[in-house]
């Protein structure tokens, strides 16, 4: 099983950078965007949308196949997508830095050494970089090796939180093209608020409370039940 998961991780490490490069090419050749800073920023956002759509679809499939047993139901797709999607976290750090560097060059209208932009990038994006590294090197091992076969449903819910990401990225793209006054921008902002609230705020206390009631335990015990260490 481990060689298969490693192969999936390798596939993901190729897929996401290649998607970024393809989007960059299409933006230059088909859309006609010549600014390398805009190409990089929009390609990064489109790759993020692609990942979010895949994660959300997988999350929905997992949830609908495991809802009958929150704790013990298994779904074959969990380990597969977790392994395939893992490299995205590391790729995204690189893509964010590439976008930051291109923006710096565009603002100064000059080629800048990467040494001059790397530390400022780390300082500016330290929270999201920390998040990505924690997911990759803490969350992934826990999800794959320390759950004792429990909690697939909740991992599906975690993947469903990505449902808001396409709208967040669309807002960033519209800003890049100075479309903040458009109706599309306003509608998209409303959808961000709604979907973010449902998928990233409301979902987990609701599910934890329901699951705790089903298993006659306190809601704060649910994560520990998944790890097999509930008090």
From TrEMBL:
Transmembrane segments: 6-26, 46-64, 70-91, 127-147, 153-174, 186-207
Chief localization: membrane
GO biological process: lipid homeostasis
Subcellular location as annotated: Membrane
Residue ranges of domain TLC in the record: 37-231
GO cellular component: endoplasmic reticulum; membrane
Keyword annotations of the record: Membrane, Transmembrane, Transmembrane helix
UniProt name for this protein: TLC domain-containing protein
Source organism of the structure: Stichopus japonicus (Sea cucumber)
